[in-house]
Each structure stands twice: as C-alpha cells, then as structure tokens.
Design a protein that fits this description.
The complex is a heterodimer of chains A (about 625) and B (about 100). Chain A is of the alpha/beta class. Chain A has a domain at about 10-225: P-loop containing nucleotide triphosphate hydrolases (Rossmann fold), CATH 3.40.50. Chain A has helices at about 40-45, 90-100, 120-125, 130-135, 145-150, 160-165, 180-190, 205-220, 230-235, 240-285, 290-305, 310-325, 325-340, 350-355, 360-365, 370-380, 390-400, 415-435, 460-495, 510-520, 530-535, 545-555, 565-570, 575-585, 590-600, 605-625; strands at about 25-30, 50-55, 60-70, 75-80, 110-120, 140-145, 170, 450. In chain A, helix 17 packs across helix 18, helix 18 (about 415-435) crosses helix 24 and helix 25 (about 590-600) runs antiparallel to helix 26 (about 605-625). Chain A is elongated, with a radius of gyration of 28 Å. The chains are: A alpha/beta (about 625), B mainly beta (about 100). Strand 8 of chain A pairs antiparallel with strand 5 (about 70-75) of chain B.
C-alpha cells in the first residue's frame, strides 16, 4: 500500500512542474468504484477496438482497448476492475493496486489515470480519489452521469473541485457522449502530476470520508434529489408480493422470447446454410472434398451456427437486465434461497452468468473472498443451464414435444419444458451446494453487501458491444473445437476403407466406437448413434447437434430428412427425456474442466466434479428413461 | 436485541439496523464485525455517525436495502444485527434534504 500522505500540502506551483510534452502516453488506466459507469466510458472511448483477456497468473479479466484521438494518434487503455478502495484485500483490489503502482511485470505502469466517479454520489465516490491522487500519476477526474446530476437538480463548481484536488476535472455523460472531448483533450495534452491541497491518512476510512466531504463542500457540491423513477420502480420490483411475481414474469418472458421469437431468425440461418450447401453441391465436382464440406462441415458446423440468433437473444436479455439495474434487485430477491443452501449472496452473480457460460462464471467467483464459498460456487456453476445446452435442448424439445398452449397464449408446452430443464439444473446446483457446504466445504459466513444502482436505460452501444463479443466467441468455438471434432468424425466415419471405398457408416470407425459403448448406454434409451454424439460432446455440449447433423448427413437413409425427423426414428420419448436429463447434469465441456483445474490449483476438484456430474447424469437419465415409456 | 429496556429514554433509543422497518432511520453508532468486514462496510458509507434509513426488502424482510451516504446497499439481517444505531425519535424521516438522503 502506498505510504501515508497525511496532510501533504503541495502548492499550486506544481502545476508548472512539467513543461508541455509532445510525448504521448502509451498506457492509460481507467479506474473507478463499481456502478460509476467506468465500463461505459471505456466503451465510449475505445468502441470496437477492445479485447478481453485475463491478467496472467490470476483470473481477473483484463479489458484493454485502443482509443483513437481526434488527431489520429492512438493510446492503449486498460479498464481495471471496479473497486471501492486500493487497500489490497480482494484479488480485484490487488490487481488494481499492482497495475497502478507498476508492480505487475506483464503490464506497463500506466502513464496516466482516468478516475471515473459518479457525480450523483460524489462525496462517497471521492473517497477513492485520495489513494489514487496519492500515487502521483497524472490523473483526470471524470465525473460521470452529468445528465442525471443535471436532471435531478444537483450541481458543483468544477474549477473549485479541480483546485482542491490539484488535478483536472471533467463532467461527462459517458452514456450520451457529453464531455468526451474533454477526456480526449486530457489524453492528447501535457499531463501533469496531481497536486492536491491536502490528502487524508489513507488507512483511516472515517478520515478519508471526512476529507471527501470537505472537498465536496469546498467545491459547492449540491447533491441531487432522490432518483424518482428508481423509487417508483423499486416500489414495484421490491414489493413483497409483486416483486417475486415480476421476477417470475421476467424469467418466463425471457425464455418464451428466446424460444419462440428466435425461430424465424433461426429458420433464416438454416435457409442460408441449405442454399449455400446446395450451391456447393452443384458447383463442386463430386469427391472426397465435397463430401467432407457438405456432409461434415455444412451439416455439422452449420447445424450449430444456426443457433447463433437464439444465443445472442439470451445475451441481449442478460445485458438489458444487467445494464438497467434490475439484476441487482433480482439478486436481492434470490438471496434467501442462496442463504438457505449455505451460499452467500456474492455467489449469485457468478451463478447467474453461468446461465450464459460456466467459464466466465468461474472466473467471476474471484470476487468471493471466502475460499470455501468460492470453491462451492465453482463446483456448482456447470449445473446452471449454459448457452451451449440451448441448441441441444431446443433440438430435442422441438422434435419430441408437440407445441401447444398451456396458459392461453402466455406459455407454450415447449417453453414450459425448457423452463423445467433450467429448473432441473438449478435444483441440482442447490442440492449439490447444500451437500458441499454441510460437509467438505463448511465455513463461517461473510457479510453480504450488494449495492443497488439507480435504474438506467441500457445503451445500444453497450448492448451492441456485448453481442459482437458473444457472437465472436460463439463463432470461434464453431470454427475451432466443433469444426475439428466434425472433421475428425467425418474421417472416422469413412474409415477403414474397404477396397478403396468407404464402409457403410455403421461399420466405420465412428460407428464401431458408438457400438462399443452401446451396451453401457442402452439402459438410458440411447442407441449407438447417440453414443457417438455423447463421445464427441465431451469436447463441448453443442457438438452433439453437429455430430448428429453429420451422422445423418453421412447415412444415406436419413440424408434427405431434417435433423428432427431423423431423431424421431432414433429415440423413444423416454430416450429423448433421458438425453435431456443427461445433458442437464453432465459436465461435457473441456473449457470448463480446464478453467476449474486452473482456479482450484490441481486436478483434485475437477476430477471430483466430473465424476460426480457424470454419475448424476447417468443415474438421472436411467431413471428418466424408465419413468416415461 | 430488543427495545424494551430503553423506554425510559424516549429521545435516543438504541437498536440494531436489523430492527429497523421500512422508513425508519437511525444514526449508526458502531459495527460489531471483524476488522475487514467493518472496513468494507465503512467504505460503502456505513460510518459511525452516518444516518441510515431502512428501505425496501426482499420478501420476508431479509435482506433489506439501506439508504446511507447517497447510496442504497442491501444487507442480510445477520449483518444488520451487528450494527448498532441510535434511533432519533425527534426527527421524522422526511426532513434533511440534500445531505445523506438521495
């Protein structure tokens, strides 16, 4: 931690310490408390020129981006995790502290800092200014949410604040792009070391708050009125009866939409693949390459890529819920359930993001300080229904469950089935958490703290960036893991050659593999074709869909049928139900296994997790196959 | 913690944050939690002397949102019970515009 800079009285003379410098900073760090709109500003400055990676050695996400200045020069921005202070207690704070002080070998010491504070809650947020200014790095204090401040009748004297802090201050609205020019001006201009009139003893929180209060009153800060709409909306969303009803309604609406309204979009994608596949079949000479392209890649990878619109819709909804501020309320409503299974509220956000994908969820558990709570959260995260399960569920449900209305037009049977599967995964997670927390991962409790941000309209830019990000990840998976597995499967489906000709699919290497494991999976209601799918889906769940697409594409009997009709020949209703249950429980994801190994520091936990989930999947599927006949 | 023992001092009653109902306000007196936990609460504005107002809660009253230092922070009852407040009976919670209210 930085040295105590108690009452360091530096004169304003320091302003002229550095003459105009033409050298451009290479790296600028963006830091601020959670909910200060830090990421919105980062998005505004960098646009699409950003990438997400992990800080080497730890799992805090490192967002870096390139900001292009109006004069054409460019600089590198690092978006640091949101922190309330720089005292290194959690991993996030440690990273922020180490990057800012240049103690990380992998990240160059930032030459300047953008400190983002919420102008509608200035005095509390100013507490973070003390440790930041004490670093002695040129800093621009960005007061965000200028539009909110103005609309709610708050104001302050920027010049006075700047004089108190000894650093330039800009009042901006990152959402609307107001005042961004000033940020660019700072980045382009000569940057001076901050020269605050006074700094408090950094270790003493009450002193820091007192200092922040004094600075605020010197700057004639007048706090805005209560956010009227936040109060009104909370009266509904946190109503003792209405709140949970809204919660359920939101969840149902999200699923109904991604299940029903995504269909036309998915049909469009499917049409594109059919037409382009037919075109290739028409123009290419018959041969091995054409067969690989059409039966393997187009039918296989194509059948997964078709689900892109649905996955993007899911992320769009998660984005809207998160950016609007509703997610924090949902976490509040769900907290009691979490407490009942022995987990803390902090586990809720990682678990919620596990509905998108378990990998970022497991990374997000780093914010949980208690190691045992963290491990428990990591171990149950893969039970949450991730977006890779969505293609599998959608395919099987569409093939086996007739689409009828359940509650008038509000809920269809297919949506209900989908919701049921989400619930099944959630229950498995809850029961497992309970087991873990009352046995091998017992621990004391740490306080649950959750800030409720004001409600805000999500911006198109931030939602758009999320979707672009997600689409990239989805397509990259389809183009790498899934393509590789599909090509391998195609090769295995055409070997060994008999008199220079491919064997019939059942006698091929792939078919033999499937038939070898058939006795084991027969009690679950699966035949050898599904067996091949189970083997390939160990790489990634959605590979089941591409595998079945390829298998049926290679098999002359089913070649002309759609995937759904072909499946109906191969599975009984009981087998279909068993397959759904199997996918709800099994840990078929190489990326998750790898990330769990890294996070828990060894093979012990991922091995335990994989075994537990596989056994549960097998037993669950066995029961499912015998319940429905 | 019950209020019953304090009826002889009508102006200043001691209670815990966990005892506050929606709309009740109090002045935070102390936090009886381990150092790091207390520090984190203080960084969020729960400083001795701060005015805390109880807001909405999850169904069943736990966790509850508290308005403090311009923000709204949700705490579980088990945490709120470890934080002692002085209830200021003389002031209705409508007054005090501008400062710790938002």
């Amino acid at each position: 931690m930085s040295e105590c800079s108690d009452c360091r009285t530096c004169g304003v003379t320091a302003v002229l310490e550095f003459p105009q410098s033409a050298a451009l900073p290479k790296t600028v760090a963006v830091i601020g408390p959670p909910n200060s709109g830090k990421t919105t500003l980062f998005n505004r400055l960098t646009g699409l020129h950003q990438k997400v990676a992990n800080f080497p050695g730890v799992t805090v996400e490192q967002h870096t981006g390139i900001a292009e200045l109006p004069d054409g020069r460019s600089i590198r921005l690092i978006d640091l995790p949101g922190v309330y202070s720089l005292s290194p207690r959690s991993e996030d704070e440690q990273i922020a502290h180490d990057v800012l002080t240049g103690e990380r070998a992998d990240t160059p010491k930032p030459e300047a800092i953008l400190l983002v504070l919420d102008s509608t809650n200035l005095q509390r947020h100013l507490m973070l200014a003390a440790p930041i200014l004490a670093l002695g790095v040129p800093t621009l204090v960005v007061l965000n949410m200028a539009d909110d401040l103005r609309n709610r009748g708050g104001h302050l004297d920027l010049n006075k604040l700047s004089a108190e802090l000894g650093a330039p201050v800009a009042l901006v609205s990152a959402r609307r792009g107001e005042g961004i020019g000033e940020v660019f001006d700072f980045l382009a201009g000569a940057m001076l070391k901050p020269a605050p009139k006074q700094l408090p003893l950094l270790q003493d929180v009450p002193k820091c708050r007192q200092w922040a209060g004094q600075v605020g009153s010197q700057a004639k800060y007048h706090a805005p009125f209560a956010p009227k709409w936040t109060r009104r909306l909370d009266a509904v969303f946190l109503h003792p009866v209405g709140g949970p009803l809204v919660f359920v309604a939101v969840v149902v609406a999200v699923f109904q939409t991604i299940f029903s309204y995504a269909v036309p979009l998915m049909d469009g994608m499917k049409w594109l693949f059919d037409v382009s596949g037919a075109w290739i079949a028409h123009t290419m000479p018959e041969g091995v390459i054409r067969s690989l392209l059409i039966e393997g890649v187009w039918k296989g990878v194509g059948s997964v890529v078709v689900f892109l619109p649905q996955v993007l819709l899911l992320f769009l909804f998660i984005g809207i819920l998160e950016d609007s501020g509703y997610l924090a309320r949902a976490a509040l409503i769900a907290d009691r359930t979490m407490a009942r299974v022995g987990l803390q509220g902090k586990s809720f956000i990682p678990l919620l993001s596990a509905y998108a994908c378990a990998v970022p969820a497991i990374l997000a558990t780093r914010t949980i300080e208690n190691k045992r709570d963290r491990f428990a959260t990591i171990l149950i995260a893969p039970f949450m229904t991730c977006s890779a399960r969505l293609p599998v569920y959608t395919l099987i449900i569409a093939a086996f469950i007739p689409d009828r209305h359940l509650l008038g037009r509000l809920l269809s049977t297919q949506t209900a089935a989908m919701l049921g599967l989400y619930l099944l995964g959630f229950l498995a997670a809850v029961v497992t958490a309970r087991l873990l927390k009352s046995s091998i991962l017992k621990s004391g409790r740490t306080p649950f703290l959750l800030e409720m941000p004001s409600y805000r309209w999500p911006t198109f830019q931030s939602l758009g960036l999320r979707l672009v990000d997600r689409a990239k990840v989805f397509l990259r998976r389809a183009g790498t893991i899934i393509l590789l597995v599909t090509v391998l499967l195609w090769i295995a489906g055409h070997l060994p050659t008999v008199n220079g000709k491919a064997p019939g699919f059942p006698n091929s290497l792939a078919g033999t593999m499937g038939r070898t494991i058939e006795p084991v999976i027969k009690p679950l209601g699966f035949n050898w074709k599904i067996g091949i799918g189970l083997i390939t889906s160990l790489a990634a769940r959605e590979t089941l869909v591409s595998t079945l697409g390829s298998i049926y594409g290679m098999d002359p009997d089913t070649n002309k049928e759609g995937l759904q009709q072909a499946l109906q020949h191969d599975l009984t209703p009981g087998g279909a139900f068993a397959l759904l249950v199997f996918f709800a429980f099994a840990m078929q994801c190489i990326s998750t296994i790898a990330v769990v190994r890294r996070e828990t520091g060894g093979w012990k936990w991922p091995a335990l997790q994989f075994t537990y989930m596989s056994v549960l999947a097998y037993v669950g599927a066995f029961l499912a196959n015998h319940v429905i006949r | 913690m019950q209020l019953s023992g304090n009826y002889d001092r009508p102006e200043a009653l001691f209670a815990t944050l966990g005892d506050l109902r929606r709309g009740d306000a109090g002045i935070l007196a102390d936090i009886d939690l381990p150092g790091d936990d207390a520090r984190r609460l203080m960084e969020l504005g729960f400083l001795p002397g701060a005015r805390v107002t109880a807001g909405h809660s999850a169904p069943g009253g736990d966790p509850r949102v508290f308005q403090v230092d311009g923000s709204e922070i949700a705490l579980r009852r088990e945490t709120a019970r470890r934080m002692r407040v002085r209830i200021d009976k003389s002031k209705p919670h409508k007054s005090k515009l501008g400062r710790s209210r938002q």
